[in-house]
Each structure stands twice: as structure tokens, then as C-alpha cells.
Amino acid sequence: MTGLPGRRTVLRAAVGSAAAVALGGALAADASRQDPGPSGVLRLATGEPTAFYAAFGRLLAAEIERAHPRLSCRVRTTAGSIANIELLRDGRADLALVLTDTARAARGDGLFERPVPVRALGRLYETYLQFAVRADSSVRTVADLAGHKVSLGAVGSGAALLGERVLDAAGLSPGTDVPVLHLRLAEAAEAVRTGAVEGLLVAGGVPLTTLTGLDADPGLRFLPLAGLLPRLGGHDGLAGSGLEEVPFPQGAYRGAGGVATIGVSNLLVCRPGLDPAIADAVTRLLVLRASALVPARAVGAQFLDVRTLIGTGSVPLHPGAVSAYRSLHG
């Protein structure tokens, strides 16, 4: 961790003293089981190699294999949430990290030709929707982007989907009022540096190393997004969307502290047919090994607490996850 102040403490009560005693007992009970535990190969879809999803995925895979040596967890880097749901749908992944908003859309909002049923193991943490332009840009709000080219995240990412909705909410038509590219983060950062695009949007923890480099040179301005929230909820409003107003933490980037943006909650989801024993085992690790699952330099609000892990909105929990939570906390 960096010591940078966050909107919430990085880990909540699950790793506090009282909860640690209770969870330590549960962990000891797990270790004493005679059951050899689940076995096989788990395929975990994450995100871009240098981004937050991939970092979290590597930590989770290590914890799964440490706790369950008969399970092999293979981490796959991807463009992000939409690509991950496609992998689940096509049977090419077993677990995936996705934005709550994208998971909700996949279940019936027309994102795919047919709804994709997914189940959640838990609500993990909250990332920040970060819309940045060069500090010397005249653009100060999303509405000011009319006529300016932007990158809204790689094809297949949840940010790409949410970014177009952000433009719509500001009264701009993506591709018409605002020329849109879908670049991977490193490519988008270079395009901002050279002036090929006016700005970029990404959903991730803060600070993102790529954006920190840009913030140093040539400098960045982060656009306020929270005012667009009322128009981002879809037909059933914001309930269950995983979207809420959050301020950038002080010190995360130069001059960004306090800018009101949008927090996006993230889920660990799976195929509905995932073996309940595996779902139970992975869910227990989310609770019992919370402190080991925080990527370095993360100051985004981390949940990893039973009280918030189960808050998966309109995406139902897998029965194996329900079993784990009931076993640990009744």
C-alpha cells in the first residue's frame, strides 16, 4: 500500500481484530478438514496485463493454489468485463472479474444477442471511472468534448460500454459529436501524450501507474463525472448498478483530489454450473484471505468484507457462495 488516503479504509472490518479472531478460527477449521478438497483446473479471466484486474487475479490464483494444491488456477488477461463474460458464455472461463454494471447488462439489457446468465461469488472492491484530458486542454467537462477525439477503453472492456453511456448522459452522440477510438490503456496514454486524442477513459484503481506517468508529463486534468449519475442507471435506475459518487483521494494524482467521479463496484462471477464445492472454496478465500488480495498501491475502496461481499446487486450469488457465507457467518 502507498499510504495515500482513500475514500474508505483499504480493508474494512473483515480484517479488524474481532473479525480476525473469528475468521482465524474458521481458517483453522478449514485446515483441519480430512476432505482433500476440490481438484481440477480453474480458468480465471481478468483484464489488461498492467491493470488492476490482472493484479488482483494473480493474487487470487496464488491463494487458491496455496489453499487447494489439487486446484490449478490459470489466469487469462483480456480486454476486460465484456470479453470476460463472453469467455464465461462460451465455456472458455470458469471465473471472471467484471464491473457490476456490465454483469447486470449481460443478464438482459441487450448487451448480447441473448442474455448471459452469470452468478456472483462476491462484490470485491470499488474502482474509479477516470476520464482524463491533458492539463493544457480547454476541456473541463464531458460536454466540452464535442468535436474532440477520445479513447473510451479497449473493445471488450466494461469501460468502453460505460464510456459511451457517459457521453450519452452528457448529451453527446458517440462517434458523431465525439469521434471515439477504443485503445488499450498503453496505446491511449501515448495518444494523449502526443495529442492524437484529447482524452481517455479507464475504470481502475487509483493511482494507475500509466496515468501517474502522464500526470507527471504532460500533466492531466480529471473530468468530474458524478453529475451524470442520474442519467446512467438505465430503465431500472441506479439500484443494483454498482455505480455511485466518489471523490478522487487526495494525493492520488496532482490536482485530482476531491474531484467527484463515479465509483464502479466489481464482482467475481462464474458460470451458473460451476461446481458448488469450488464456488464454496473460492468464496471462503475472499473472506479468510482478504488482506492478501489487495494489489500493491491500491487506494480504491476495498470491500472484501462479508457485509459487502454479499451485496452483488441484481446479480445472484452462486449457491456455493451462499453456503460459504452462511457457514462462516450464519
Structure write-up:
The structure is a single chain. By secondary structure, the chain is α/β, with parallel strands linked by helices. The chain is built from ten helices and ten strands. It is globular, with a radius of gyration of 20 Å. The chain starts with 16 loop residues before the first helix and ends with a helix. The model is unreliable at 1-25 (pLDDT under 50).
What is the compact description of this entry?
The protein is α/β, with parallel strands linked by helices. It has 10 helices and 10 strands. Strands 1, 2, 3, 4, 5, 6, 7, 8, 9 and 10 form a 10-stranded mixed β-sheet that branches.
β-strand number: 10
Estimate the strand proportion. Answer: 15-25%
CATH topology of the largest domain: D-Maltodextrin-Binding Protein, domain 2
CATH class of the largest domain: Alpha Beta
Ends distance:
32 Å
Q: Which outline best applies?
A: globular
Please work out how many helical segments DSSP would assign. 10
Radius of gyration: 20 Å
The number of domains = 2
String of helices and strands: HEHEHEHEEHEHEHEEEHHH
Give a short account of the largest sheet: 10 strands, mixed
Class of secondary structure makeup: alpha/beta
| Helix coverage percent | 25-40%
Task: Tell me, rounded to a whole number, the average pLDDT.
Answer: 86
Task: Return the CATH architecture of the largest domain.
Answer: 3-Layer(aba) Sandwich
Kindly report the name of the CATH homologous superfamily of the largest domain: Periplasmic binding protein-like II
Low-confidence stretches: 1-25
